[in-house]
Amino acid sequence: MKLLKKSLPAKICAAAILALGSLFISQVSSAQQKERTLDEIKAEATKRAENGMYPLIGLDPADVRE
Length: 66
What we know:
Layout: H1 8-31, H2 38-50, H3 61-65
């Protein structure tokens, strides 16, 4: 079995694609992390408990509100 040898431009192109992909992924993940107030988090938790949504499946909404 022969190993394929990549030329220098192909290696540079592959490295650039990986670097841009990593940058894109880090930007997407940081954009998804929005700061929320405690009241917003409480409202989301209550909504999830009332509708049986993950991760509050099976919890009593009254307990979550308390």
